[in-house]
C-alpha cells in the first residue's frame, strides 16, 4: 500500500500543498482532482520522486521512500503527451526501457502485455501511424513492461474523445485490477474521476477538500466547495448527478 502522510510543498513563501494525506491500495485507482493550479501535478511529482517533499512522508509497503531517488522507488509514470520516440516503432518504444534492464521482463511477457492492450496488429507501426488511443496504449505497455509497484498517470484521457476515451478508461481499470497496481491519476475532469476511480482526492487551494469514494462525494459532499465544484464542472443539475452516477436523489 502507498501512504502519503501530511505532505506539504512550498515554493518561496507560497504554500502550494499543505497537510496532504491519503492512501492507495494494490489494485485501487485514486484520482487527484482539482482545478488548474490546485497542486495536484506537484503532488504527483513528489510521489514519483521528481520533486522533493518539504514536509510529511511517503511510504510504500511500510518503507519510507520520502527521500529515495526516483529510480529506486519502483514507480512509473505515463505522461500526458505520451513521450514516445517518433523514430521507433511501437514495440521498440515499448521495450526501450528494457535495454538497461534486459532480465526484468521476458519476451513472452512483453508479448502478453502487447496482446493484453490490443496492440498486436500495430506493434510494428511507426508512432505517426498510430491513433491517439493506440499511442496511449503503447505508453501504458511501455510502463507495464517495467513492472512498476505504483502506476502514475498525468491527464491520461485529456487528448482523447468519445469511444476512444471510454476504451482507454476501461484499459486503465483492467490494468489496475489485473496487475494489482496502486494507480494514481491526475485529472481536472470530475466526470473522468467519478467514473474511473475507486476513490477521489479532491484538492482545493493546496489542501484536501475531500478524500472519499465517488458515491460518497456525490451523496455527502464535505463542503459547499466540493458540492459546487462537482456540479459546476459537470454543468449538470444536482438531481441528475445522482442518476448519472448510480445514486439516488432524496
From TrEMBL:
Keywords for the protein's UniProt record, in alphabetical order: ATP-binding, Cell membrane, Ion transport, Iron, Iron transport, Membrane, Nucleotide-binding, Transport
Annotated ABC transporter domain residues: 2-230
One Pfam match: ABC_tran
Top-level taxonomy: Bacteria, Bacillati, Bacillota, Bacilli, Bacillales
Record GO terms (molecular function): ATP binding
Cited Gene3D superfamilies: P-loop containing nucleotide triphosphate hydrolases
InterPro entries: AAA+_ATPase, ABC_SmlMolc_Importer, ABC_transporter-like_ATP-bd, ABC_transporter-like_CS, ABC_transpr_FbpC, P-loop_NTPase
PANTHER family: SPERMIDINE/PUTRESCINE IMPORT ATP-BINDING PROTEIN POTA, SPERMIDINE_PUTRESCINE IMPORT ATP-BINDING PROTEIN POTA
This protein's name: Iron(III) transport system ATP-binding protein
Amino acid at each position: 500500500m502507498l501512504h502519503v502522510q501530511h505532505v506539504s510543498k512550498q515554493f518561496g513563501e507560497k504554500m502550494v500543498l499543505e497537510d496532504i494525506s491519503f492512501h492507495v491500495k494494490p489494485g485501487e485507482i485514486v484520482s487527484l482532482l482539482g482545478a488548474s493550479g490546485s497542486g495536484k501535478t506537484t503532488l504527483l511529482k513528489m510521489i514519483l520522486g521528481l520533486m522533493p517533499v518539504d514536509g510529511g512522508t511517503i511510504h510504500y509497503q511500510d518503507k519510507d521512500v520520502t527521500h529515495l531517488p526516483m529510480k529506486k522507488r519502483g514507480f512509473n509514470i505515463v505522461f500526458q503527451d505520451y513521450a514516445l520516440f517518433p523514430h521507433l516503432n511501437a514495440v521498440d518504444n515499448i521495450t526501450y526501457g528494457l535495454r538497461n534492464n534486459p532480465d526484468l521482463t521476458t519476451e513472452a511477457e512483453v508479448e502478453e502485455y502487447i496482446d493484453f492492450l490490443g496492440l498486436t496488429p500495430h506493434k510494428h507501426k511507426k508512432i505517426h501511424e498510430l491513433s491517439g488511443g493506440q499511442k496511449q496504449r503503447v505508453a501504458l505497455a511501455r510502463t507495464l513492461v517495467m513492472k512498476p509497484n505504483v502506476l502514475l498517470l498525468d491527464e491520461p484521457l485529456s487528448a482523447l474523445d468519445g469511444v476512444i476515451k471510454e476504451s482507454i478508461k476501461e484499459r486503465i481499470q483492467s490494468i489496475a485490477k489485473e496487475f494489482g497496481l496502486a494507480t494514481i491519476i491526475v485529472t481536472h475532469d470530475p466526470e473522468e474521476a467519478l467514473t474511473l476511480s475507486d476513490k477521489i482526492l479532491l484538492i482545493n487551494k493546496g489542501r484536501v477538500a475531500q478524500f472519499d469514494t465517488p458515491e460518497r462525494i456525490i451523496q455527502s459532499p464535505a463542503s459547499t466547495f466540493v458540492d459546487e465544484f462537482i456540479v459546476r464542472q459537470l454543468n449538470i443539475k444536482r438531481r441528475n448527478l445522482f442518476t448519472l452516477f448510480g445514486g439516488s436523489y432524496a
